[in-house]
Amino acid sequence: MSIRLTGEIRKMSISNVNNACAVVLIIVLFASHMSAFHIDDCMRNQQNNSILHIREAHIHPANVIAPGNLNVRVNFEILRDISSDFELSVVVWRKVLFLWLTLSRSTHSLCGLLDTEFLQVDGSTSCPPQLANAGLPCRCPFTRGHYSLPLSSFYIVKPHYLLYGRYWVQAQLRDTSTGVLKACQTMRLTLSRP
Question: Taking Cα atoms as reference points, which of 122, 118, 168 lies closest to residue 138?
Fold first, then answer.
């Protein structure tokens, strides 16, 4: 998948559906109360262990249109300093007729994924301008605090292997040294034609 961020021409190479969904979850951290898109915290019963809380977030349009612009606004909190690496597990399902079929499962090093996916064409490792201008972290370590992304536009290009339709994605962060679940988000979205 190739994502071109507006305001600066650059490309992020992503080799498969797993990385595409992981990057979307990491970059955007978005939520909406519209039926076409929904994100939910799947750690409600384990709030003492949680390291992430999304306070408010919105996307427009409600369906993710690819290719096209996705406008995002988010307010979230990192509840504890994150100085060590975490394991990011991503499962992607696609709705086919009345069934949710598992499309892919993957596990990544969170810090390794961020270092790889934000590598610029020129070899630099700067954050995307939308995140950098808002003071949002995109590299390990992460500092405890409140963060906000004002309304920002991201240009999304649909990978050839990803079909239009309804998707459900679950992302979990686990402490690599203890195996304890530290964050879990599920996201349902519709990928639509322009």
Answer: 118
Residue 30, token pair as written in the block = 């978005």
Q: Per-residue confidence at 148, pLDDT binned at 50, 70, 90?
A: very high
Could you tell me the CATH number of the domain that includes residue 42? Answer: 2.70.220.10
Which residues span the domain enclosing 84? 2-192
Query: CA-CA distance, 153 to 160, in Å (whole number)?
Result: 22
- The 10s digit of each residue's pLDDT in 77-101 is 999 888 778 899 999 999 999 999 9
Strand 68-78 and strand 145-156: pairing?
antiparallel
Tally the residues of the chain. Answer: 194
45: burial class by Cβ within 10 Å (0-12, 13-18, 19+)?
A: exposed
Residue 83 DSSP class: -
Asked if the model's pLDDT at residue 30 lies above 50, the reply is no
Alpha carbon distance 95, 89 (integer Å):
20
Q: Which two tokens stand for residue 58?
A: 């919105």
Residue with tokens 């595409």: 20
Interatomic CA distance for residues 147 and 134, integer angstroms: 8
How many independent structural domains does the chain possess? 1
